[in-house]
Amino acid sequence: MLPRRALAAALVSLALLAAAPRPAEAHALVLESSPRADEVLPSSPGRILLRFNSRLEKGLSMVTLTGPTGRPIPLPVAAADPSPNHLVVPVPPLEPGRYVVRWKVLSADGHVTERAFRFTVAPAH
């Protein structure tokens, strides 16, 4: 059996380890998007907004939109957005159909992340 002092020291050490700060998530993940994933829109959006959980290197990040024709459309990332964790992408008028937004970003800590989501522009009635 451990002496009381050694046991107390071990318990204090374990408590300190459990309370120690852990490294932050190294990958930029989307916390919010507009349009939202799988959203059906009544008309073409004027922009795509992506809000991430970390600061981005916007000059080295990209967004591509693929529509019903299957041809990818590279979209310019708006550098004017002052928020370090947002990407704002102007979108040309879109025809009705299903679209895939693909993004590839470089977070400020140097990690690259890429993902995709879909949205639909509904036909006019």
Topology:
Elements: H1 4-19, E1 30-34, E2 39-41, E3 47-52, E4 62-66, E5 72-75, E6 86-90, E7 97-106, E8 112-121
Parallel strand pairs: 2-8
Antiparallel strand pairs: 1-3, 3-6, 4-5, 4-7, 7-8
How large, in whole angstroms, is the Cα Rg?
22 Å
Strand content: 35-45%
Number of helices in the DSSP assignment: 1
* Count of the domains: 1
Shape: elongated
Q: What's the CATH C level?
A: Mainly Beta
* Spatial gap, N to C terminus: 79 Å
Helix content: 10-25%
Sequence of strands across the biggest β-sheet: 2-8-7-4-5
Residue runs with pLDDT of under 50 for 5 or more positions: 10-25
User: Helix- and strand-based class?
Assistant: mainly beta
Average pLDDT, all residues: 82
Kindly report the CATH topology. Answer: Immunoglobulin-like
CATH architecture: Sandwich
Helix and strand string, N-terminal first? HEEEEEEEE
Number of strands: 8
Oligomeric state of the chains? single chain
Task: Please summarize the sheet with the most strands.
Answer: 5 strands, mixed
Care to describe what's here?
With 125 residues, this protein is mainly beta. The protein has one domain: Immunoglobulin-like, CATH 2.60.40. 13% of the residues lie in helices and 38% in strands. It is built from 1 helix and 8 strands, in the order αββββββββ. It has one helix at residues 4-19, and strands spanning 30-34, 39-41, 47-52, 62-66, 72-75, 86-90, 97-106, 112-121. The strands form 2 sheets. It has a 5-stranded mixed beta sheet, with no helix packed on it. A 3-stranded antiparallel beta sheet has the order 1-3-6, with no helix packed on it. A hairpin with a 5-residue loop joins β4 and β5 (72-75). The longest helix has 16 residues, at 4-19. Residues 10-25 have low confidence and may be disordered.
